[in-house]
């Protein structure tokens, strides 16, 4: 008799949903359906996102009956901090444990313009980029919107102690955001809402490795969210070598999707380009990249890679990084070199999880 193969559990089966997963209108509808006034949703949001309450019992301007209904219907997601690494430059990396025992990474980065949080959207990743620790062990499951929101809330609670505020969010942590599109989109709407975390759309950036159908869909959402594409190679063959997703969504079609995004939204796209020593960092690669991006409303973000022990790529020498940048500028391409942060901690995406949770990343 042939054995039935078990499918991976990519969706979390929640007995009690996270209230952080609910957008304001969804919560209003739930309240009305359950015999309550819709305006109570705004009061609940105030407790969750302004006062950062950790239990429904704290919500003293709600009736006891409503608090009991909320307690029965929802949970306020909490993340257990397994490890908190602090860099000399103020960067903090958190390794959080989810309620089912899986772990995720969230990073707080301090800039001159404020505090930015890099969030995770999946436990693991199935994209398989050959330079990334996040993909070690493959995809375990998608995160619910509330689990992504909880990362920002948890970091904000830490910042409350120093009277700082999360001013921007980047969705560039573990996982491919567009592979968890519905939950990612709900997360965006919750943190952007003025009754939610009230983080301005232009202070939020979402990145994709190039899931082309979702790029078209995201363009049609016409949100003011910043959009980034992880490119990492100037030609089809090299990109396939670095990023297996390129076999399914090849570079010429990806460029068409990027053009559609810029033309539909009128917004600039950020091109993320990791520099790997003697792989994609030569002058000829810069020349080829400039030709590829010619006429596209974009900005290239050069990323000197962090060394990951589980991978074989080495860092591009400093003078070569500047030569690559100079070549792009000579061709009229807007380009900057990303400032390195967290160099003295496990800063590379997925690196801390790979180090501390080997059972999840084998």
Automatic annotation (TrEMBL):
Its EC number is 2.1.1.192. Keywords: 4Fe-4S, Cytoplasm, Disulfide bond, Iron, Iron-sulfur, Metal-binding, Methyltransferase, rRNA processing, S-adenosyl-L-methionine, Transferase, tRNA processing. Binds 1 [4Fe-4S] cluster. The cluster is coordinated with 3 cysteines and an exchangeable S-adenosyl-L-methionine. S-adenosyl-L-methionine binds at residues 175-176, 207, 230-232, 306. It catalyses: adenosine(2503) in 23S rRNA + 2 reduced [2Fe-2S]-[ferredoxin] + 2 S-adenosyl-L-methionine = 2-methyladenosine(2503) in 23S rRNA + 5'-deoxyadenosine + L-methionine + 2 oxidized [2Fe-2S]-[ferredoxin] + S-adenosyl-L-homocysteine; adenosine(37) in tRNA + 2 reduced [2Fe-2S]-[ferredoxin] + 2 S-adenosyl-L-methionine = 2-methyladenosine(37) in tRNA + 5'-deoxyadenosine + L-methionine + 2 oxidized [2Fe-2S]-[ferredoxin] + S-adenosyl-L-homocysteine. GO terms for biological process: methylation. Its main location: cytoplasm. The active site is at 105 (proton acceptor), 349 (s-methylcysteine intermediate). GO terms for molecular function: methyltransferase activity. [4Fe-4S] cluster binds at residues 125, 129, 132. It is an enzyme of class 2 (transferase). Specifically methylates position 2 of adenine 2503 in 23S rRNA and position 2 of adenine 37 in tRNAs. PANTHER family: 23S RRNA METHYLTRANSFERASE, RADICAL SAM CORE DOMAIN-CONTAINING PROTEIN. HAMAP family: RNA_methyltr_RlmN. NCBIfam families: rRNA_mod_RlmN. Reaction proceeds by a ping-pong mechanism involving intermediate methylation of a conserved cysteine residue. This is Probable dual-specificity RNA methyltransferase RlmN. The gene is rlmN.
